Amino acid sequence: MAGTAWERAKNQLKKAAGHLELEPLLFAEMLHPDRTVNVSVPVVMDDGRVEVFEGYRVQHSNILGPYKGGLRYHPRVNMGEVEALAFWMTMKTALVDVPFGGGKGGITVDPKQLSEGELERLTREFTRKLAPVIGPTLDIPAPDVNTNANVMQWIREEYAHIVGKDEPAVVTGKPVERGGSEGRTEATGLGGSVAVLSFLAHLGKNPAGMTVSIQGFGNVGRYLAESLSAAGLKIVALSDSKGGIYIPGGIEDISAVEACKERSGKLAGCYCIGSVCDIYNKKKLDGQDVSSDEVLTLPVDIIVPAALEDVLTEKNAPLIQAKYVLELANGPTTAEADTIFAHRGITVIPDILANAGGVVVSYFEWYQNMHGERWEKADVLAKMKKYMEAAVENVWTHARKHNVSLREAAYIAGLERLRKSFQNPSRSPRRVL
Ligand code: NAD
């Protein structure tokens, strides 16, 4: 596979910038993150040893507002990956029109090997190292792969300890009972559903009965599955890091599969009839065990990478049978795969649009914290839907105007917004609610 995620991101930027004759200064700002922070995080492990982990925070751009983006705990995390993810956040927040910039961070660690206590000590120490560069109007972390509401709460507590004041808006994705927003947990998956349904409507396609295969059954994948299933699409395959299930006739009850995964710690073998899930149902359901890679090449209408980046490559792109790729993971498609999809007439709904529901509701959480408000879940999700539909409309218009892919159109639309703010000398953060 050619190039790192960050190199690919920069190439995507260059292509889109070509359509806009972007000012060299703005172009340079986009190519170079404002700040990269590399920290060491020593932790006393349960057995008394001290282990030192490497942590990162990249603040890519704050042209539109404070840096915003998740923290990822994963063995593959490295500075290049975080730079690409931070850049994509800048494009995403611009595209969906929330007054934030782009940032991202993480620690190179396999959190599954840590106890709860070790994870908490790691997070609190990481917060101490990041404290000088984060804050409610400076840089606001959020959950990403293998981090969740509890991790955000630890960061908030540790930050409060350091600055001597509780600042709930220093992170988003907090537990709802502690200042998190209703609807944040579901937002990315539900936003993905809004994105694909809006595009299908633009294309004049009826989604009812369309088949869907999803790689990744975490926070994002599971809410997407539930939402698309409720909208009348047929979820036929799901996978997580340990494998997957394929039921050509459709998975009847996503919540039963969720409960099974919760109980057994893996999705493989979760063949459910009613609430009874076991391997003996496999034959009755005409089911098949599939690997996490195989879920992407099944004969379905829509595939959804909802786990990690670089899973659609020049190797498997020729084997993809779906007509649509809904990118809920960040950066799941390599440049080579993108080219193959374009030649094969496969439509890719790009990550910076498809998975933006999360950052939209993160903005709502931050806004509620800053203004001492609490919104109902229905209200939050209805507002998020409006933002997503407006972004889809914008991308659709740009794709037709410039005769480019949806990905390129999304970049062009994002860059146009950045340019507008960049040209404004006062550069005041905008209020868009
Ligand atoms: P998560 O940790 O809740 O879930 C990740 C899922 O991917 C798990 O089911 C895990 O088992 C699975 N997985 C990991 N490695 C895999 C592999 N090699 N093959 C198949 N499955 C694998 O994370 P999440 O929050 O659901 O995030 C998933 C993706 O969505 C990430 O790329 C993340 O950056 C992106 N994203 C998340 C949000 C959000 O709000 N959580 C927002 C935007 C984008």
Automatic annotation (TrEMBL):
UniProtKB keywords: NAD, Nucleotide-binding, Oxidoreductase
CDD domains: NAD_bind_1_Glu_DH
Active-site residues per Swiss-Prot or TrEMBL entry: 104 (proton donor)
GO terms under biological process: L-glutamate catabolic process
Site (Important for catalysis): 144
GO MF, any single term: nucleotide binding
Keyword Ribonucleoprotein among record annotations: no
Pfam families, sorted: ELFV_dehydrog, ELFV_dehydrog_N
Amino-acid positions noted as binding NAD(+) in the UniProt annotation, renumbered to this chain: 188, 219
Residue span(s) of domain Glutamate/phenylalanine/leucine/valine/L-tryptophan dehydrogenase C-terminal: 181-426
Residues annotated to bind substrate: 68, 92, 362
Protein family (similarity comment): Belongs to the Glu/Leu/Phe/Val dehydrogenases family.
Record protein name field: Glutamate dehydrogenase
